[in-house]
Amino acid sequence: MQSQKATRIDLFSLATPQMRAFHITWLAFFVCFFAWFAVAPLMPVIKGEFELTNDQVYNINIAAVGITILVRLLIGPMCDRFGPRLTYTGLLILGSVPVIGIAFANSYESFLFFRLAIGAIGASFVITQFHTSVMFAPNVVGTANATVGGWGNAGGGVTQSVMPLILAALVSVGVEKTMGWRLSMIVPGVMMLVVAFLYFRFTQDTPEGNIMELRARGIAVDSGKKGGWAVFKQAMTNYRVWMLAITYGACFGVEIFIHAVAATYYVERFSLDLTQAGMAAGSFGLLALFARALGGIASDRVARSKGLDGRTLLLFALMVGEGIGLLAFAYAGSVVLAVVAMLAFGLFTHMACGATYALVPFIDRKALGGVAGIIGAGGNVGAVAAGFLLKGVGNLPGALFILGIAVLISSLCAISVRFSLTHKETEQKLYDEAVAQRAVTSGQPAFA
Predict the structure, then answer these.
(1) Quick check: is 215 in a domain?
(2) 356 partner at 20 to 30 Å CA-CA among 14, 130, 268, 313?
(3) How many Å apart are CA 388 and CA 382, to the nearest integer?
(4) Residue 104 to residue 179: CA distance in whole angstroms
(5) CB contact at 8 A, 172 and 411
(6) What's this model's pTM, rounded to 2 decimal places?
(7) Is 207 a member of any domain?
């Protein structure tokens, strides 16, 4: 199936199944990420309404990312078995229920339940990466994965800024804040249902067609030949998967942890109002518009001359930069310094996320769903660990400092990922074939 994967990204085209998957996938992930963290910038209002203690807020933040671990582990094999089209459509429809349902919460316990359930839509990332991995060839798959992931992640930044504005608009027409935040949550729920229709109607699983239909016709596909759970078990035996799960926990885990706490942090530490805090926090998420893609592009460029070993060394360097930046951010003394430091470490964080999933398609092609699911779940394990760390330390600067140290240590896992000579030769052959095919179809030298 290598020959039918796209060897270039025609950004302004929807003519091919590869590019339709590219654009609808990042849109779906954007909407899921928007909905996942839509309630985060509204937490100062919600905290007052329900009279929540700091400990209860910490529990809510942990719940928001905790269930995602399990669902990400499940969603990978489901992609292998049913294909990303049906899996994504189902997740969007089911995920919209708790997003809208949280508007009806009337106590800490009911709010916690819905926040836990909303976390399931964080598994959308695994489907996003699976879909582009089977659609794009080795010379551009890192860029494709990182770009759709980054543009989707930007939903976490946009929601930090947009949700307070929606609430402010409702309040300006006479709606009470306690009702306004509830009405605001209906917006992302409806968005998810619209995108579910688009995904089902306009995408297909692979360049050749839908996985279940291909398998029924006896046509082999790159992933899932043995069925979802078999390839999941295969992925579990690969030590590289677990090393990258740790690195992803140290970059994506930090990213979603910051999404969950940033707005409240700026309100409580620097006395910003809800809109100002949302803008400050949102700037971190908006880095995903380009920074994650930049990590994938850099990985593809390094792979031209350094191969797979170059990809791992790049990831190591980015994580070192992230760790140092976190240490600087931990004790920033003013709002300006805090924002500057946050953007600095955020750049490395997003790029490291992109570089991690630029490696994922090369770990084990026959167990792609399992590989993507386990590594993706690692990101949420990192976020949950960060949440418990904050709960234990009791203050964000102290927790951030410890996180910085942890990231630096975790960077060693990146350089521990090594490949056999046979594996590297096989992947290099596929890479060279993709570059040659691109040159033939474009009539000019190809660039990864």
Answers:
(1) no
(2) 14
(3) 10
(4) 10
(5) no
(6) 0.81
(7) no
